[in-house]
Design a protein that fits this description.
It catalyses: riboflavin + ATP = FMN + ADP + H(+); FMN + ATP + H(+) = FAD + diphosphate. The protein is built from ten helices and twelve strands. The protein is α/β, with parallel strands linked by helices. Bound molecules: flavin mononucleotide (FMN) and adenosine-5'-triphosphate (ATP).
């Protein structure tokens, strides 16, 4: 997938394209359906497919107090966009100047002059241009004016429209299985493995601890079942993706963990050295909250139960 960060990056011979626009945070099932349509229509016409997106998230610039915590990092969004088969992504820096463009200016500069759009595909609630003043009707008028087709796709979602907002809410509640259903993939966070307090090994469960502020939305404190994925190993390596019991929180049984951490015990492995590696932790299912135990023995007994449950769940996947 080609990646452009300004309009001037687009090569002169890029040709005509089928285009869509949005934040695509998390690249959920609604986004994926829309992007799939963009790719299919471009293939049918024998032209390029391109998604226009923004960095940072528009609300971070316009209303930082209302800006959402993003589901996925820029890296992960990029990878998921690439996986849809798009030919190109245009990641525009979202600035006050961009925010001030009228719908007509945005469409002319970006879709028409920049990407030579033959067709623009959007969801029915799309808004664009200064103060979100443009909607699908505006887009249809501009399509007639500039000579591109406009397709408005129906909502995706069984009982209600899938949205990034719902995915964020599910993750904040620890409902990682609900989030995965809306996303169409398991949610993950990404970070470098750092040294913890080295207590895990004594408890019988050594854990890979992610450094502070991993990329991606960290779900509610609790104990989860999932997978640890090592980015630096090949996909077909047996140790690339390994089942894990995961803990998110401040380890309340101990009083010495000031920061919320994400740590994963790779099931039945005490021989791994993951320090300084970049890993992803995938969250499949929540088992329970993160509790303060009266004794270390009580914690260990519960961790054994967690691990047994994790083994069972991962065995069937
Ligand atoms: C499956 C699992 C469940 C856990 N549950 C709890 C818990 O309920 N309460 C708690 O205080 N710590 C819990 N922990 C975190 C342990 O306290 C932590 O892994 C241990 O203190 C090692 O920390 P370290 O890696 O910083 O050395 C859990 C860890 C795992 C892997
Ligand atoms: N469930 C859905 N079904 C169909 N299209 C969707 C769905 N969700 C988003 N889209 C479309 O995907 C494009 C990109 O959307 P964008 O990421 O900007 O917002 P969003 O997902 O609607 O945001 P949020 O969920 O945070 O309200 C838009 O054209 C939007 O209409």
């Amino acid at each position: 997938m080609l990646s452009f960060s300004t309009l001037t990056d687009i090569p002169a011979d890029f040709g005509a394209s089928v285009v869509t626009v949005g934040n695509f945070d998390g690249v959920h099932r609604g986004h994926a359906a829309l992007l799939h349509e963009v790719v299919q229509r471009a293939t049918a016409r024998g032209i390029r497919s391109c998604a226009v997106t923004f960095e940072p998230h528009p609300l971070q610039v316009l209303h930082p107090d209302r800006a959402p915590e993003l589901i996925a990092s820029t890296t992960s969004r990029y990878e998921r966009l690439a996986a849809t088969g798009l030919d190109a992504v245009l990641v525009l820096e979202f600035t006050a100047e961009l925010a001030a463009m009228t719908p007509e200016e945005f469409v002319r500069d970006v879709f028409v002059d920049g990407l030579h759009a033959a067709e623009v595909v959007v969801g029915r609630d799309t808004r664009f241009g200064v103060k979100n003043s443009g909607d699908v009707d505006t887009l249809r008028q501009l399509g007639q004016q500039f000579g591109f087709a406009v397709d408005v796709l129906p909502d995706v979602g069984e009982d209600h429209r899938i949205s990034s907002t719902d995915v964020r809410r599910a993750l904040a509640d620890g409902a990682v299985d609900v989030a995965a259903r809306a996303l169409g993939h398991v949610h993950d966070v990404r970070g470098v493995v750092v040294r913890g307090l080295q207590r895990g090994r004594e408890l019988g469960f050594p854990t890979a601890n992610l450094g502070p502020k991993p990329e991606g939305l960290v779900p509610a404190d609790g104990v989860y079942v999932g997978w640890l994925v090592r980015e630096d190993t090949a996909r077909d390596d047996a140790e690339h993706r390994m089942p894990a019991a995961i803990s998110v929180g401040t380890n309340p049984t101990f009083d010495d963990v000031p920061e919320r951490t994400v740590e994963a015990y790779v099931l039945d492995r005490d021989d791994l050295d993951l320090y300084d590696e970049t890993v992803r932790i995938e969250f499949v299912r929540r088992l329970r909250g993160n509790t303060k135990f009266d004794s270390i023995d009580a914690l260990i007994t519960q961790m054994r139960r967690d691990v047994a449950q994790a083994r069972e769940i991962c065995r069937t996947r």
